[in-house]
Design goal:
Blueprint (H helix, E strand, L loop, with lengths): L3 H11 L21 E5 L2 E4 L4 E4 L14 H11 L10 H13 L5 E5 L2 H16 L3 E5 L12 E2 L9 E2 L6 H4 L2 E4 L4 H11 L3 E6 L2 E2 L5 E2 L2 H14 L2 E6 L11 H5 L5 E4 L10 E5 L1 H4 L18 H14 L4 H23 L4 E5 L2 E5 L8 H4 L4 H13 L2 E2 L8 E2 L6 H18 L2
Helix pairs in contact: 2-10, 3-10, 6-7, 11-14, 13-14
The structure holds pyridoxal-5'-phosphate.
Length: 427
């Protein structure tokens, strides 16, 4: 048996930093990342055989819990027919029809393999459709790692952003405007100045990449109205929130109608599927019908769409979201109580099966508020929970996820671990 330490050592020889996605490296909380060997229901087991209650759920997709029998059966059935054809299949039509029937603002949908691809392609489509270059994004929102989105806010209001990663030429981000989340006034100012050149606004209606910050209704309404007024497209990125905060996504909670919706994570049920869709009139601008190029060797992969389709069927069963929300609230309420008893500044929020945990005296409403969380306090709590078999997201900037497999018993076990872990903070 290999230890996590030994595997991490070994991994670092052939994989940069030992991981294939940076947040997995546990850099902000310290220690060796856990190398997961298998998972079932709400649990994962690492290479040392230690069991964890999983509140990451593969960063969102595992809304049914791990190894859901209906999903596994669908995947096994698909696998025996062949892994990939690079040709059209009926399974792609079925999942496209399913997505269009669930999401009222999607008439046509194009499948891709990652949220990054969905974001990159949606922006290209918006630029192609409008014939404009500028895009607006918000500080703290994440839409994948394509070049034009790796931007940090400029020095002043309405200055264009600078690349937030090396390897991104300034020229690539010069058309990206970065505004403050939940600030309708900045949106007004921005459109007044640049409105006729703006191709799209891209937003997470419930932001899940600066922990969890819901947009205000006014913010979403202002964005929709300005996009309509100036002929820009509104892209709502539901890669995290789609089928997660509610069946029809965050857009249904705000009653906002995006021109393009991005989907990912839950839509693949754990295999690489993402998508972007909208009105037929917009979507018909994509190749092969239109002049906006977009392609993918493994797009709509038959095994992946079978997995996604089985997941979408399960989440539409009556009472699914009521039960998921209730379990999530049971957990967040319980954590708040336990923290209070320990005298720790801590608060939570949740929508559907998504939650935010904050070491703050009051709930944050934007990126700057989240930045006030003390990473050292979080790191102590995170590691204490991990020791006690509870696997939380290893960063103050990540949301948490509860699945349909998280029973009362599992939540009780989590709260027991939390009671001990919060107590350590006030020593
Ligand atoms: C995860 C995520 C993405 C990127 O998806 P990948 O599949 O990791 O490329 C984009 N937008 C949001 C809101 C996400 O949470």
């Amino acid at each position: 048996m290999s230890t996590n330490e030994a595997l991490f050592e070994r991994a670092q020889k052939t994989i940069p930093g030992g991981v294939n996605s940076p947040v997995r490296a546990f850099k902000s909380v310290g220690g060796a990342p856990r190398f997961i060997e298998r998972a079932n229901g709400p649990f994962m087991w690492d290479a040392e055989g230690k069991r964890y209650i999983d509140y990451i759920g593969s960063w969102g997709p595992m809304i049914l819990g791990h190894n859901h029998p209906a999903v596994i059966e669908a995947v096994e059935k698909a696998v025996t027919k062949g892994l990939s054809f690079g040709a059209a299949t009926e399974g792609e039509i079925e999942i496209a029809e399913e997505v269009c029937s669930i999401m009222p603002n999607i008439e046509q949908v194009r499948f891709v393999s990652s949220g990054t691809e969905a974001g990159m392609s949606a922006i290209r489509l918006a630029r192609g459709y409008t014939g404009r270059n500028k895009i607006v994004k918000f500080e703290g929102c994440y839409h994948g790692h394509s070049d034009s989105l790796l931007v940090k806010a400029g020095s002043g209001l309405l200055t264009f952003g600078n690349p937030s990663s090396s390897g991104v030429p300034v020229g690539t981000t010069e058309h990206t405007l970065v505004l403050e989340y939940n600030n309708p006034q900045q949106l007004h100012d921005c459109f007044r100045q640049f409105g006729d050149d703006i191709a799209c606004v891209i937003v997470e209606a419930v932001a899940g990449n600066m922990n969890m910050i819901p947009a205000t209704q006014e913010f979403m309404d202002t964005m929709r109205a300005l996009c309509t007024q100036y002929g820009a497209l509104l892209i709502v990125d539901e890669v995290m929130t789609g089928f997660r905060v509610a069946l029809k996504g965050a857009q249904s909670l705000y009653n906002v109608q995006p021109d393009i919706t991005m989907l990912g994570k839950v839509i693949g049920g754990g295999l690489p599927v993402a998508a972007f869709g909208g009105r037929k009139e917009v979507m018909s601008k994509i190749a092969p019908l239109g002049s906006v190029y977009q392609a993918g060797t493994l797009s709509g992969n038959p095994v992946a769409v079978a997995c996604g389709m089985a997941t979408l069927k399960e989440i539409q069963k009556p009472g699914f979201y009521e039960a998921l929300s209730a379990q999530t609230q049971k957990l967040t309420k319980g954590l708040t109580e336990v923290a209070q008893q320990a005298g720790v500044d801590f608060c939570t929020r949740s929508i559907g099966g998504m939650m935010g945990l904050f070491f703050l005296p009051e709930l944050p409403n934007g990126f700057n508020d989240v930045m006030k969380c003390d990473p050292a306090v979080f790191g102590t709590f995170f590691n204490a929970m991990l020791d006690r078999g509870v696997y939380l997201a290893p960063s103050i900037f990540e949301a948490g996820f509860v699945s349909a497999a998280h029973t009362d018993e599992v939540i009780e076990e989590t709260l027991t671990a939390a009671r001990e872990s919060f107590a350590l903070l006030n020593r």
